[in-house]
Design brief:
With 234 residues, the protein is of the alpha/beta class. It has eight helices and seven strands, in the order E-H-E-H-E-H-E-H-E-H-H-E-H-H-E. It has one domain: Rossmann fold. Strands 3-2-1-4-5-6-7 form a seven-stranded parallel sheet, sandwiched between helices. The relative contact order is 0.14.
Length: 234
């Protein structure tokens, strides 16, 4: 049975990934930080094992991975967003964004990749955003962090490909999650009009893209950014 680890697994896209991998018979572990009640409910529902961990802290990551052991598939999903004018972004805002969206991805990946290299097998799937591809006004720090996820994906894919490990990236568009709960009905209508598919996406559609990269069918696919955005960027 293949073992999968999903960061930020207690809600949103991460929780859907936990459910879908568990349904397919994977041994599922997930990391969460603050959403204890949701994590416990998800574990009870799916049988997945939740481990509390602030992924921006190396000692917590090391402790979490020591509990989990070697894994076959890593989904770097944990992330935060924030809407702010560039002039209002503080150094603390910038550091927090990169600590979670980029440093956390680095720390977790580094903690598990040695086991994958030893086995000559592994799948690493990173969650970016369409704003990491084209940038978003009033989200400079978020866009920059998600662009870093894409650069990380491509560079690591080249480096560890000879070890039998694929590294790919899913780049969601506007998805109905808590992260977008601030959007007004007017905002949503406008985004739907801009999207060729005529609607917003859902977490299940993003999870299915993650499952594709995790599957053996994607064994010859690496360094790829797959947009799940309804055509809003092409």
């Amino acid at each position: 049975m293949k073992k999968v680890l999903i960061t930020g697994g207690s809600r949103g896209i991460g929780a859907q990934c936990v459910k879908d991998f568990a349904e397919l018979g994977y041994s599922v572990y997930f990391l969460y930080n603050k959403s204890k009640e949701k994590a416990e409910a998800l574990s009870e529902e799916t049988g997945a094992v939740g481990v509390k961990c602030d992924i921006s802290k190396a000692d917590e990551v090391k402790s979490a991975i020591s509990q989990i052991g070697d894994i076959d598939i890593l989904v770097n999903n944990a992330g935060i967003s924030e809407i702010k004018m560039f002039q209002d972004i503080t150094e603390r805002d910038w550091d927090r964004m990169f600590d979670i969206n980029v440093k956390g991805m680095f720390l977790v990946t580094k903690a598990v990749v040695s086991g994958m290299i030893r086995k000559k097998l592994g799948r690493i799937i990173n969650i970016s955003s369409m704003w990491g591809e084209v940038g978003a006004s009033c989200e400079v720090h978020y866009s920059a962090s998600k662009a870093a996820v894409i650069g990380f994906t491509k560079a690591l894919a080249k480096e560890i490909g000879p070890s039998g490990i694929t590294v790919n990236c899913v780049s969601p568009g506007v998805i109905m999650t808590e992260m977008n709960s601030h959007l007004s009905d007017e905002d949503i209508d406008e985004l739907c009009e801009e999207t060729p598919a005529g609607r917003m996406g859902n977490v299940s559609e993003v999870s299915k893209a993650v499952l594709y990269f995790a599957d053996e069918k994607a064994g010859f696919v690496t360094g790829t950014v797959l947009g799940v955005n309804g055509g809003i960027i092409m």
